[in-house]
Amino acid sequence: MDVAIIGLGIHPFGRTDDMTGLDQGAFAARKALEDAGASWDDMDFAYGGSAAAGNADALVNKLGLTGLQFINVANGCATGGSALQSAYMAIKSGMFDMGMAVGFDKHPRGAFTVDPEKSGLGKWYGDVGMALTPQFFGMKIQRYMHEFGISEDTLIKVAEKNFRNGTLNPNAWRQKAISYDEIKASPMVCDPLRKYMFCSPAEGGCAMILCRADKAKQFTSKPIYLKAVSVKTRNFGSFEVFTQAQALDRADSPTVKASKAAFELAGIGPEDIDVAQLQDTESGAEIMHMSENGFCADGDQEKWFAEGHTEINGKLPVNTDGGCLANGEPIGASGLRQVHEVALQLRGDAGKRQVPNQPKTGYTHVYGAPGLSGVTILSV
Amino acid sequence: MATSVANQVPIAEGLFTWPSNDPRLLGSKCKNCGVVLFPAQSSCPACCTEDSDVIELERRGKIWTFTIQNFLPNRPPYEGPETPETFKPYGVGYVELADQTRVEARIQTDDVSKLHIGQDVELVVEKYIERDGKDIISFFFKPVDEV
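ok -> C-alpha cells follow
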C-alpha cells in the first residue's frame, strides 16, 4: 500500500514574538487539516517533535482530546524527517489509514548552545571551546575544498542563490536578497565560512496529513506519493560533528547510506529527480550534500554553480524555498518544511518560485547532529 | 614553570599522562580490530567488542583539517580566560597521528592566518586557565617551528 500526502500546512518561519512554538505548531496543523479537507477527529495517529518548545503531544490540548495515538519524536535535526518516517511506517504497516506528522520549534536568538555531557562528551570538551557546531561545518568543508578543488566563489554562490529564492517565498524568514559582494564581505565565523553563509536557529511550524494511497482521491485531486523514506545514523569512520578523534579510514556518511536506501526503495536513481531540498545548514553543507546524495561527482559542484544547474530553472533546482539559509532552522519543523516545499512544487502550487515544466519527482534530505540523515522521495 | 606541580590539575583525568616531563595523549587500541580511539574507552565502536589497551599517542602529527574560531564562544560551556575585549581568534583542527587516529584539538599559534592542511604540529600540555586557585592544565598542538 502506497502512502499519500494529502494536506500541507506551515506557519511562517522566522520570529513570531506573540506566539509560542506550540501555537505555531497548532497553526500549521490546522492549515494542513484545512488543506486536506479533513478534521482532527479523522486522525488515527500523529507523530510530532519539538527540540526547544515543549512536548509535541501538548498539541492535543489545542486541537482536541480525541484519544488518538500521539507519539513524541526527538531525533536532533532529523526530528521532522523522523516524524514523517514514523507516520509512513504506521500507514505502510496497515495499522492505520490516516494521520499527521507535525513539528514546531522556537529557539532563542544566537548560535545553538551545546551541553557536551548530554552528547556523551567530557565536560572539558566544552571548557576548551570545541563544542561549537560551526567549527565542524568549517572543518568538514575546509577538507572537502582541499580534496576536490571547491572555491570560495562556490560557497558564496550557494548563499546568494538560497537568499534569492527566499525572496520568492512568503513563508521564509529572510525575504531580502543578499548580494555576492555582501556575502563575500561578511565577517568570518569559522573559516572558510562567513556570517551570510550560515543559517540561524529560528521559529516555525509545519504539518502534513498522510493517508493510504487508495483513499487519497477522496480528499484531494493532487495527492503526492511518498515513494521512499529512509533514516540512517553514522557508521564508524564517517566525519561527524563532535567527534573527538576521527578514524584514519573514512566511511560513507549517513547521508550516502540514507540516499542509497531511498533510491533503492523507490526503484529510481538521482537522474530521475526534478527538484530537491538538501540540508544547507551552511553553504558548505549544500555543496557536499549534492554529491553525498548522488546528484553529482565530488568536485563537479564548482561547474554546477558556474552554470546555474541548481537554480529554479536549472536542471536540478535545489532549495527552491530558500532552504535553511533563508528559513532558519526551527529543529522540529525544519525537515518537514523541506517535504512541504517539494510537495508544493510537485502539485504545481509553488507560486513565484514554481519550477517550470511540471516536475514529477522530488527529493528531500535532512542532516543533523550527532550524525544522522533522513531522505524522502516523492512523486505525483 | 612558575608554579609547582602540586598546584596543577589536568582539565580531565585520563586525557594525557600527568605529571610528566614528556606528556602524551592517552588513547585506546582495540585488541580485536586494532582501531585507536581518543579519549581512551573500553568499548570499540568499530567492531562492537569490549577489550582494549590504553596506549600513548604520537607527539607529532600533521593538520588534516582545521578552522578558526572567530567569535568568543558562549559561557557555559566555554571557560577560556578571554573577555570580549581580549578575545583573539583561535585555531581548532584534526591532527593526524601516523597509523593511529586524527585527534581534535585547539591549535596554538601566534598567527592563525598561517594555519594550513599538512602543517607539522606537536603536542604541548600547559596551563589553560586558573580555577579555585589552581592552574588547569590542558593539551594543545602547536606548529613545530613555534614550540
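The domain at 3-109+199-379 of chain A is CATH 3.40.47.10 (Peroxisomal Thiolase; Chain A, domain 1).
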